[in-house]
Amino acid sequence: MLPAFSLNRGYMETMMGVEDPLPPELTDRLAPPPARGLRRVREYLRLGRIAAGLAVEAARLGRTRRRFLARLETAIGEGPDPAAANLTELAATYRRIEGTLLDKWDAPLVNDFLCMVGFGASRALLGKWAGDRGHAFHNDVMIGQGGIVSAEPARRIAEMGRIVRGDDAALAALAKGRAAVAGFGALDAGISAYLTDFGDRCTEELKLESLPLSDDPAPLLAAIASAARRPEAPEQARAVPDWQALMPGMPVRRRIVRALTGWAAARVRDRENLRFERTRIFAHARRVFLAIGREFHANDLLDDPRDVLCLTVTEVLGAIEGSGLSRNLKAVVAQRQAEAAADHARPEPPERILLRGAVAAHRPKAAAMPVSEGGDLRLGTGCSRGAVTAPARVVRDPRRQTLHPGEILVASNTDPGWIALFAGAAAIVVERGSLLSHSAIVSREMGIPCVVGIRDATRWIETGDIIEVDGGSGRVSKRNG
Protein backbone atom coordinates (compact mmCIF):
# COMPACT_ATOMS: atom_id res chain seq x y z
CA MET A 1 0.00 0.00 0.00
CA LEU A 2 3.01 2.30 0.46
CA PRO A 3 4.16 3.80 -2.84
CA ALA A 4 7.85 3.05 -3.57
CA PHE A 5 7.89 0.66 -0.60
CA SER A 6 11.54 -0.35 -1.03
CA LEU A 7 12.64 3.31 -1.04
CA ASN A 8 10.37 4.67 1.68
CA ARG A 9 10.35 1.79 4.14
CA GLY A 10 13.04 3.39 6.31
CA TYR A 11 11.14 6.70 6.43
CA MET A 12 7.96 4.88 7.43
CA GLU A 13 9.69 3.04 10.27
CA THR A 14 11.26 6.32 11.46
CA MET A 15 7.83 7.97 11.60
CA MET A 16 6.30 4.99 13.45
CA GLY A 17 9.21 4.65 15.87
CA VAL A 18 9.51 0.86 15.59
CA GLU A 19 12.70 -0.73 16.88
CA ASP A 20 12.72 -3.92 14.82
CA PRO A 21 11.98 -3.91 11.07
CA LEU A 22 9.54 -6.33 9.48
CA PRO A 23 10.95 -9.86 9.19
CA PRO A 24 12.39 -10.73 5.74
CA GLU A 25 9.77 -13.43 5.10
CA LEU A 26 7.13 -10.68 5.08
CA THR A 27 9.07 -7.98 3.24
CA ASP A 28 10.05 -10.46 0.52
CA ARG A 29 6.37 -11.14 -0.11
CA LEU A 30 5.30 -7.51 0.13
CA ALA A 31 7.95 -6.10 -2.15
CA PRO A 32 7.60 -7.01 -5.83
CA PRO A 33 10.34 -9.21 -7.33
CA PRO A 34 13.09 -7.41 -9.24
CA ALA A 35 11.79 -6.32 -12.63
CA ARG A 36 13.59 -7.19 -15.85
CA GLY A 37 13.39 -5.94 -19.41
CA LEU A 38 10.12 -4.35 -20.50
CA ARG A 39 8.60 -4.93 -17.07
CA ARG A 40 11.38 -2.82 -15.55
CA VAL A 41 10.46 0.03 -17.89
CA ARG A 42 6.81 -0.29 -16.86
CA GLU A 43 7.81 -0.18 -13.17
CA TYR A 44 9.76 3.04 -13.71
CA LEU A 45 6.79 4.54 -15.55
CA ARG A 46 4.52 3.51 -12.66
CA LEU A 47 6.89 5.08 -10.15
CA GLY A 48 6.98 8.23 -12.27
CA ARG A 49 3.19 8.35 -12.33
CA ILE A 50 3.07 8.00 -8.55
CA ALA A 51 5.68 10.76 -8.17
CA ALA A 52 3.71 13.03 -10.49
CA GLY A 53 0.52 12.33 -8.56
CA LEU A 54 2.24 13.16 -5.27
CA ALA A 55 3.58 16.38 -6.78
CA VAL A 56 0.03 17.35 -7.76
CA GLU A 57 -1.29 16.46 -4.30
CA ALA A 58 1.52 18.48 -2.68
CA ALA A 59 0.70 21.50 -4.85
CA ARG A 60 -2.99 21.45 -3.92
CA LEU A 61 -2.55 20.33 -0.31
CA GLY A 62 -3.63 23.72 1.02
CA ARG A 63 -6.94 23.49 -0.85
CA THR A 64 -7.40 19.83 0.17
CA ARG A 65 -6.82 20.77 3.80
CA ARG A 66 -9.29 23.68 3.69
CA ARG A 67 -11.99 21.48 2.15
CA PHE A 68 -11.34 18.75 4.71
CA LEU A 69 -11.67 21.21 7.60
CA ALA A 70 -14.89 22.58 6.11
CA ARG A 71 -16.33 19.06 5.91
CA LEU A 72 -15.24 18.41 9.49
CA GLU A 73 -16.91 21.54 10.81
CA THR A 74 -20.07 20.62 8.91
CA ALA A 75 -20.04 17.08 10.32
CA ILE A 76 -19.67 18.39 13.87
CA GLY A 77 -22.11 21.29 13.53
CA GLU A 78 -24.95 19.71 11.54
CA GLY A 79 -27.66 17.51 12.95
CA PRO A 80 -29.37 17.37 16.33
CA ASP A 81 -27.66 17.70 19.68
CA PRO A 82 -26.73 14.13 20.77
CA ALA A 83 -27.90 14.98 24.29
CA ALA A 84 -31.49 15.30 23.05
CA ALA A 85 -31.57 13.11 19.91
CA ASN A 86 -33.47 9.85 19.51
CA LEU A 87 -31.96 6.58 18.25
CA THR A 88 -32.91 7.11 14.61
CA GLU A 89 -31.33 10.58 14.61
CA LEU A 90 -28.20 9.32 16.36
CA ALA A 91 -27.68 6.52 13.85
CA ALA A 92 -28.16 8.99 11.00
CA THR A 93 -25.62 11.35 12.61
CA TYR A 94 -22.97 8.64 12.70
CA ARG A 95 -23.72 7.58 9.13
CA ARG A 96 -23.26 11.21 8.08
CA ILE A 97 -19.89 11.39 9.86
CA GLU A 98 -18.86 8.17 8.16
CA GLY A 99 -19.92 9.31 4.71
CA THR A 100 -18.60 12.86 4.79
CA LEU A 101 -15.35 12.31 6.68
CA LEU A 102 -14.18 8.77 7.36
CA ASP A 103 -14.45 7.76 3.70
CA LYS A 104 -12.77 11.03 2.61
CA TRP A 105 -9.88 11.31 5.05
CA ASP A 106 -7.71 12.83 2.33
CA ALA A 107 -5.88 15.78 3.89
CA PRO A 108 -4.44 13.90 6.92
CA LEU A 109 -3.37 10.92 4.79
CA VAL A 110 -1.73 12.99 2.05
CA ASN A 111 -0.04 15.27 4.58
CA ASP A 112 1.19 12.28 6.62
CA PHE A 113 2.80 10.70 3.58
CA LEU A 114 4.40 13.96 2.46
CA CYS A 115 5.53 14.60 6.04
CA MET A 116 7.15 11.17 6.19
CA VAL A 117 9.00 11.67 2.91
CA GLY A 118 9.93 15.31 3.52
CA PHE A 119 11.11 14.77 7.09
CA GLY A 120 13.10 11.66 6.22
CA ALA A 121 14.62 13.11 3.03
CA SER A 122 15.60 16.45 4.60
CA ARG A 123 17.15 14.72 7.61
CA ALA A 124 19.04 12.29 5.38
CA LEU A 125 20.28 15.11 3.16
CA LEU A 126 21.49 17.19 6.11
CA GLY A 127 23.24 14.12 7.52
CA LYS A 128 24.90 13.44 4.17
CA TRP A 129 26.08 17.01 3.59
CA ALA A 130 26.77 18.12 7.19
CA GLY A 131 27.30 14.89 9.16
CA ASP A 132 26.14 14.51 12.76
CA ARG A 133 25.91 18.30 13.10
CA GLY A 134 23.31 18.20 10.35
CA HIS A 135 21.08 15.79 12.30
CA ALA A 136 21.23 18.00 15.41
CA PHE A 137 20.58 21.07 13.27
CA HIS A 138 17.54 19.36 11.74
CA ASN A 139 15.90 19.14 15.16
CA ASP A 140 16.71 22.81 15.84
CA VAL A 141 14.98 23.90 12.63
CA MET A 142 11.81 22.13 13.78
CA ILE A 143 11.70 24.23 16.99
CA GLY A 144 9.65 27.34 17.41
CA GLN A 145 7.98 27.44 14.02
CA GLY A 146 4.73 28.37 15.79
CA GLY A 147 1.19 27.47 14.90
CA ILE A 148 1.26 24.02 16.56
CA VAL A 149 -2.03 23.71 18.41
CA SER A 150 -0.74 20.98 20.75
CA ALA A 151 1.65 23.44 22.42
CA GLU A 152 -1.15 25.91 23.22
CA PRO A 153 -2.57 23.96 26.22
CA ALA A 154 0.79 24.20 28.04
CA ARG A 155 0.85 27.97 27.52
CA ARG A 156 -2.72 28.31 28.83
CA ILE A 157 -1.99 26.16 31.89
CA ALA A 158 1.11 28.23 32.72
CA GLU A 159 -0.93 31.43 32.35
CA MET A 160 -3.65 30.16 34.72
CA GLY A 161 -0.92 29.05 37.12
CA ARG A 162 0.37 32.63 37.24
CA ILE A 163 -3.15 33.88 38.00
CA VAL A 164 -3.42 31.78 41.18
CA ARG A 165 0.24 31.84 42.25
CA GLY A 166 0.33 32.83 45.91
CA ASP A 167 -3.48 32.70 46.24
CA ASP A 168 -4.10 30.02 48.89
CA ALA A 169 -7.87 30.27 48.52
CA ALA A 170 -7.74 29.66 44.78
CA LEU A 171 -5.35 26.72 45.22
CA ALA A 172 -7.69 25.21 47.81
CA ALA A 173 -10.61 25.63 45.38
CA LEU A 174 -8.68 23.81 42.64
CA ALA A 175 -8.20 20.88 45.00
CA LYS A 176 -11.96 20.70 45.69
CA GLY A 177 -13.11 20.48 42.07
CA ARG A 178 -14.59 22.46 39.20
CA ALA A 179 -17.63 23.75 41.09
CA ALA A 180 -15.45 25.31 43.80
CA VAL A 181 -13.62 27.49 41.26
CA ALA A 182 -16.79 29.32 40.19
CA GLY A 183 -16.14 32.22 42.57
CA PHE A 184 -12.72 33.07 41.08
CA GLY A 185 -13.46 35.19 38.02
CA ALA A 186 -10.30 35.16 35.90
CA LEU A 187 -9.43 31.57 36.81
CA ASP A 188 -12.98 30.33 36.19
CA ALA A 189 -13.07 32.10 32.81
CA GLY A 190 -9.70 30.64 31.84
CA ILE A 191 -10.78 27.10 32.72
CA SER A 192 -14.06 27.49 30.83
CA ALA A 193 -12.23 28.75 27.74
CA TYR A 194 -9.73 25.89 27.99
CA LEU A 195 -12.47 23.27 28.22
CA THR A 196 -14.29 24.84 25.27
CA ASP A 197 -11.16 24.66 23.10
CA PHE A 198 -9.43 21.55 24.44
CA GLY A 199 -12.07 19.70 26.47
CA ASP A 200 -11.99 16.78 24.03
CA ARG A 201 -8.34 16.04 24.82
CA CYS A 202 -7.53 13.43 27.42
CA THR A 203 -5.15 10.60 28.14
CA GLU A 204 -5.75 7.73 25.69
CA GLU A 205 -8.06 10.05 23.77
CA LEU A 206 -8.51 7.59 20.89
CA LYS A 207 -10.26 5.10 23.16
CA LEU A 208 -14.00 5.65 23.31
CA GLU A 209 -14.07 4.65 26.98
CA SER A 210 -11.66 7.44 28.02
CA LEU A 211 -13.15 10.37 29.91
CA PRO A 212 -12.38 13.70 28.20
CA LEU A 213 -11.52 16.78 30.24
CA SER A 214 -15.00 18.15 29.60
CA ASP A 215 -16.37 15.22 31.66
CA ASP A 216 -13.51 15.00 34.18
CA PRO A 217 -11.53 18.26 34.48
CA ALA A 218 -9.60 17.04 37.56
CA PRO A 219 -6.29 16.53 35.63
CA LEU A 220 -6.52 20.10 34.32
CA LEU A 221 -7.14 21.53 37.80
CA ALA A 222 -4.17 19.56 39.18
CA ALA A 223 -1.95 20.82 36.36
CA ILE A 224 -2.91 24.45 37.09
CA ALA A 225 -2.14 23.99 40.78
CA SER A 226 1.20 22.40 39.89
CA ALA A 227 2.04 25.31 37.55
CA ALA A 228 1.18 27.78 40.32
CA ARG A 229 3.66 26.15 42.71
CA ARG A 230 6.54 26.31 40.24
CA PRO A 231 8.79 29.36 40.43
CA GLU A 232 8.46 31.76 37.50
CA ALA A 233 11.20 31.02 34.97
CA PRO A 234 12.34 33.61 32.41
CA GLU A 235 11.53 32.67 28.84
CA GLN A 236 14.67 31.59 27.05
CA ALA A 237 15.43 33.09 23.67
CA ARG A 238 15.85 30.53 20.94
CA ALA A 239 18.85 30.85 18.67
CA VAL A 240 18.10 31.41 14.99
CA PRO A 241 19.43 28.44 12.98
CA ASP A 242 22.65 29.52 11.19
CA TRP A 243 22.62 27.78 7.82
CA GLN A 244 25.74 29.63 6.67
CA ALA A 245 27.80 28.30 9.58
CA LEU A 246 26.49 24.76 9.09
CA MET A 247 27.25 24.55 5.38
CA PRO A 248 29.88 27.16 4.46
CA GLY A 249 30.91 27.35 0.83
CA MET A 250 27.92 25.29 -0.39
CA PRO A 251 25.32 27.86 -1.48
CA VAL A 252 23.43 25.60 -3.90
CA ARG A 253 23.21 22.66 -1.51
CA ARG A 254 22.31 25.01 1.31
CA ARG A 255 19.40 26.49 -0.62
CA ILE A 256 18.12 23.05 -1.62
CA VAL A 257 18.20 21.51 1.84
CA ARG A 258 16.92 24.69 3.51
CA ALA A 259 13.87 24.76 1.24
CA LEU A 260 13.21 21.04 1.74
CA THR A 261 13.61 21.27 5.53
CA GLY A 262 11.30 24.29 5.76
CA TRP A 263 8.68 22.46 3.72
CA ALA A 264 9.05 19.38 5.95
CA ALA A 265 8.63 21.55 9.07
CA ALA A 266 5.34 22.85 7.68
CA ARG A 267 4.16 19.27 7.07
CA VAL A 268 5.10 18.34 10.67
CA ARG A 269 3.08 21.32 11.94
CA ASP A 270 0.07 20.39 9.80
CA ARG A 271 0.36 16.75 10.88
CA GLU A 272 0.10 17.69 14.56
CA ASN A 273 -2.74 20.13 13.93
CA LEU A 274 -4.70 17.61 11.86
CA ARG A 275 -4.29 15.14 14.72
CA PHE A 276 -6.14 17.65 16.88
CA GLU A 277 -8.96 17.78 14.32
CA ARG A 278 -9.07 13.99 14.43
CA THR A 279 -9.51 14.26 18.20
CA ARG A 280 -12.46 16.61 17.72
CA ILE A 281 -14.37 14.38 15.32
CA PHE A 282 -13.54 11.30 17.40
CA ALA A 283 -14.93 13.05 20.48
CA HIS A 284 -18.11 13.88 18.54
CA ALA A 285 -18.47 10.21 17.64
CA ARG A 286 -17.93 9.37 21.32
CA ARG A 287 -20.81 11.67 22.27
CA VAL A 288 -23.03 10.04 19.65
CA PHE A 289 -22.34 6.49 20.87
CA LEU A 290 -22.73 7.41 24.55
CA ALA A 291 -26.08 8.99 23.66
CA ILE A 292 -27.05 5.73 21.94
CA GLY A 293 -26.03 3.91 25.13
CA ARG A 294 -28.31 6.23 27.08
CA GLU A 295 -31.24 5.34 24.82
CA PHE A 296 -30.42 1.61 24.88
CA HIS A 297 -30.38 1.71 28.67
CA ALA A 298 -33.72 3.54 28.71
CA ASN A 299 -35.16 0.78 26.50
CA ASP A 300 -33.71 -1.94 28.81
CA LEU A 301 -31.29 -3.16 26.11
CA LEU A 302 -28.27 -2.48 28.35
CA ASP A 303 -27.70 -2.51 32.10
CA ASP A 304 -25.57 0.64 31.95
CA PRO A 305 -25.35 3.37 29.28
CA ARG A 306 -21.56 2.99 28.98
CA ASP A 307 -21.97 -0.72 28.19
CA VAL A 308 -22.53 0.41 24.59
CA LEU A 309 -18.73 0.76 24.38
CA CYS A 310 -18.45 -3.04 24.60
CA LEU A 311 -20.31 -3.44 21.30
CA THR A 312 -19.01 -3.07 17.75
CA VAL A 313 -20.22 -0.31 15.46
CA THR A 314 -22.02 -2.92 13.35
CA GLU A 315 -23.81 -4.29 16.42
CA VAL A 316 -24.84 -0.84 17.66
CA LEU A 317 -26.17 0.37 14.32
CA GLY A 318 -27.64 -3.07 13.55
CA ALA A 319 -29.73 -2.91 16.71
CA ILE A 320 -31.19 0.40 15.49
CA GLU A 321 -31.47 -0.27 11.76
CA GLY A 322 -32.58 -3.91 11.92
CA SER A 323 -29.48 -5.70 10.61
CA GLY A 324 -28.24 -6.97 13.99
CA LEU A 325 -27.69 -10.69 14.50
CA SER A 326 -28.60 -10.71 18.19
CA ARG A 327 -31.21 -8.92 20.25
CA ASN A 328 -29.63 -9.95 23.54
CA LEU A 329 -27.11 -7.14 23.77
CA LYS A 330 -26.69 -7.66 27.51
CA ALA A 331 -25.29 -11.15 26.92
CA VAL A 332 -22.89 -9.86 24.27
CA VAL A 333 -21.67 -7.17 26.67
CA ALA A 334 -21.20 -9.69 29.49
CA GLN A 335 -19.06 -11.88 27.23
CA ARG A 336 -16.94 -8.93 26.10
CA GLN A 337 -16.40 -7.72 29.65
CA ALA A 338 -15.26 -11.19 30.74
CA GLU A 339 -12.83 -11.37 27.81
CA ALA A 340 -11.52 -7.88 28.59
CA ALA A 341 -10.90 -8.83 32.22
CA ALA A 342 -8.92 -11.86 31.05
CA ASP A 343 -6.92 -9.71 28.63
CA HIS A 344 -5.97 -7.29 31.39
CA ALA A 345 -4.47 -10.17 33.36
CA ARG A 346 -2.10 -11.04 30.53
CA PRO A 347 1.43 -9.63 30.31
CA GLU A 348 2.05 -6.55 28.19
CA PRO A 349 2.63 -7.66 24.59
CA PRO A 350 5.95 -7.10 22.83
CA GLU A 351 6.37 -4.39 20.21
CA ARG A 352 5.92 -6.89 17.39
CA ILE A 353 3.87 -10.10 17.61
CA LEU A 354 4.70 -12.88 15.13
CA LEU A 355 2.03 -15.54 14.61
CA ARG A 356 1.47 -18.43 12.21
CA GLY A 357 -1.92 -19.98 11.68
CA ALA A 358 -5.25 -18.70 12.98
CA VAL A 359 -4.87 -15.66 15.20
CA ALA A 360 -7.83 -16.71 17.37
CA ALA A 361 -5.99 -19.94 18.22
CA HIS A 362 -3.01 -18.02 19.63
CA ARG A 363 -2.57 -18.40 23.38
CA PRO A 364 0.01 -15.94 24.72
CA LYS A 365 2.26 -17.46 27.31
CA ALA A 366 2.52 -15.84 30.71
CA ALA A 367 5.96 -14.28 30.85
CA ALA A 368 7.73 -12.48 33.63
CA MET A 369 8.52 -8.82 33.15
CA PRO A 370 11.91 -8.64 31.43
CA VAL A 371 14.71 -7.55 33.72
CA SER A 372 16.28 -4.23 32.89
CA GLU A 373 19.89 -4.49 31.80
CA GLY A 374 22.50 -2.98 34.11
CA GLY A 375 24.66 0.07 33.67
CA ASP A 376 24.23 3.78 34.19
CA LEU A 377 23.91 4.82 30.54
CA ARG A 378 21.30 4.42 27.82
CA LEU A 379 21.24 5.79 24.29
CA GLY A 380 17.93 6.63 22.64
CA THR A 381 16.75 9.05 19.98
CA GLY A 382 17.42 12.69 20.76
CA CYS A 383 14.40 14.78 19.74
CA SER A 384 14.92 18.19 21.32
CA ARG A 385 18.30 19.63 22.26
CA GLY A 386 19.33 20.65 25.74
CA ALA A 387 21.04 19.02 28.71
CA VAL A 388 19.37 18.73 32.12
CA THR A 389 20.42 17.01 35.35
CA ALA A 390 17.54 16.62 37.80
CA PRO A 391 15.49 14.12 39.83
CA ALA A 392 13.32 11.75 37.80
CA ARG A 393 9.67 10.97 38.33
CA VAL A 394 8.24 7.84 36.70
CA VAL A 395 4.64 8.52 35.71
CA ARG A 396 2.32 5.70 34.68
CA ASP A 397 -1.04 7.45 35.05
CA PRO A 398 -1.04 11.19 34.27
CA ARG A 399 -4.60 11.45 35.56
CA ARG A 400 -3.49 10.69 39.11
CA GLN A 401 0.19 11.68 39.21
CA THR A 402 1.83 15.09 38.99
CA LEU A 403 5.37 16.40 38.68
CA HIS A 404 7.16 18.39 41.32
CA PRO A 405 9.00 21.52 40.17
CA GLY A 406 12.22 20.74 38.32
CA GLU A 407 11.63 17.01 37.84
CA ILE A 408 12.26 14.98 34.69
CA LEU A 409 9.24 13.15 33.33
CA VAL A 410 9.86 9.44 32.61
CA ALA A 411 7.05 7.50 30.91
CA SER A 412 6.36 4.39 28.87
CA ASN A 413 4.52 6.34 26.18
CA THR A 414 2.66 9.62 25.95
CA ASP A 415 -0.20 11.17 24.02
CA PRO A 416 -1.77 14.65 23.86
CA GLY A 417 -3.44 14.08 27.23
CA TRP A 418 -0.01 14.32 28.88
CA ILE A 419 0.45 17.96 27.92
CA ALA A 420 -0.37 19.11 31.45
CA LEU A 421 2.71 17.26 32.70
CA PHE A 422 4.85 18.44 29.79
CA ALA A 423 4.25 22.01 30.91
CA GLY A 424 6.15 21.41 34.16
CA ALA A 425 8.83 18.96 33.04
CA ALA A 426 12.52 19.87 33.13
CA ALA A 427 13.08 17.17 30.48
CA ILE A 428 11.22 14.19 29.05
CA VAL A 429 12.30 10.54 28.65
CA VAL A 430 9.91 8.14 26.89
CA GLU A 431 10.26 4.44 26.18
CA ARG A 432 8.40 4.51 22.87
CA GLY A 433 8.18 7.11 20.16
CA SER A 434 9.93 8.56 17.15
CA LEU A 435 11.18 11.89 15.83
CA LEU A 436 7.64 12.50 14.57
CA SER A 437 5.78 11.36 17.70
CA HIS A 438 3.70 13.75 19.78
CA SER A 439 6.37 13.80 22.53
CA ALA A 440 9.06 14.87 20.08
CA ILE A 441 7.03 17.50 18.23
CA VAL A 442 5.62 19.21 21.32
CA SER A 443 8.87 19.09 23.31
CA ARG A 444 10.71 20.71 20.39
CA GLU A 445 8.06 23.41 20.17
CA MET A 446 8.25 24.05 23.93
CA GLY A 447 12.06 23.89 24.04
CA ILE A 448 12.14 20.97 26.51
CA PRO A 449 14.99 18.42 26.17
CA CYS A 450 13.48 15.10 25.07
CA VAL A 451 14.77 11.59 24.42
CA VAL A 452 12.59 8.74 23.15
CA GLY A 453 13.34 5.09 22.52
CA ILE A 454 14.83 4.20 25.94
CA ARG A 455 13.06 0.84 25.95
CA ASP A 456 13.40 0.03 29.66
CA ALA A 457 13.25 3.57 31.03
CA THR A 458 10.40 3.01 33.51
CA ARG A 459 12.17 -0.06 34.94
CA TRP A 460 15.74 1.17 34.78
CA ILE A 461 14.89 4.56 36.33
CA GLU A 462 13.12 4.95 39.66
CA THR A 463 11.41 8.04 41.01
CA GLY A 464 14.00 10.15 42.83
CA ASP A 465 16.99 8.99 40.78
CA ILE A 466 19.22 11.83 39.64
CA ILE A 467 19.56 11.49 35.89
CA GLU A 468 21.17 13.50 33.12
CA VAL A 469 19.27 13.90 29.86
CA ASP A 470 20.95 15.15 26.69
CA GLY A 471 18.19 15.81 24.17
CA GLY A 472 20.67 16.34 21.34
CA SER A 473 22.68 13.13 21.49
CA GLY A 474 19.93 10.96 23.02
CA ARG A 475 22.10 10.05 26.03
CA VAL A 476 20.42 9.38 29.37
CA SER A 477 22.64 8.55 32.34
CA LYS A 478 22.25 8.02 36.07
CA ARG A 479 24.27 10.05 38.52
CA ASN A 480 25.62 7.93 41.39
CA GLY A 481 25.01 9.36 44.82
Summarize the structure.
The protein is α/β, with parallel strands linked by helices and 481 residues long. The chain has helices at 5-16, 24-30, 37-59, 61-77, 87-100, 106-141, 152-164, 168-176, 185-198, 218-229, 243-246, 251-298, 313-321, 329-344, 419-422, 438-446, 457-460; strands at 377-379, 381-384, 387-394, 408-411, 427-430, 450-452, 466-470, 475-478.
Task: Offer a few descriptive terms.
single chain, 481 residues, alpha/beta, 8-stranded mixed β-sheet, globular
Structure notes:
The protein has 481 residues and is an alpha/beta fold. It has a domain of 102 residues: Phosphohistidine domain (Glucose Oxidase, domain 1, 3-Layer(bba) Sandwich), CATH 3.50.30.10. It has 17 helices and 8 strands. Strands 1-8-7-3-4-5-6-2 form an 8-stranded mixed beta sheet. Helix 16 links the parallel strand 5 and strand 6.
What characteristic shape results from the CA principal axes? globular
Helix content: 40-55%
First-residue to last-residue Cα separation: 52 Å
- Low-confidence stretches are none
Strand order of the largest sheet: 1-8-7-3-4-5-6-2
Seen as an oligomer or otherwise, the chain set is: single chain
Q: Could you say what the CATH architecture of the domain at 377-478 is? A: 3-Layer(bba) Sandwich
On the 0-100 scale, what is the average pLDDT?
88
Please tally the β strands and state the result.
8
CATH topology of the domain at 377-478: Glucose Oxidase, domain 1
Question: Helical segment tally?
Answer: 17
- Our estimate of the beta-strand percent is 5-15%
Q: What is the CA-atom radius of gyration, in angstroms? A: 25 Å
- CATH superfamily of the domain at 377-478, by name, is Phosphohistidine domain
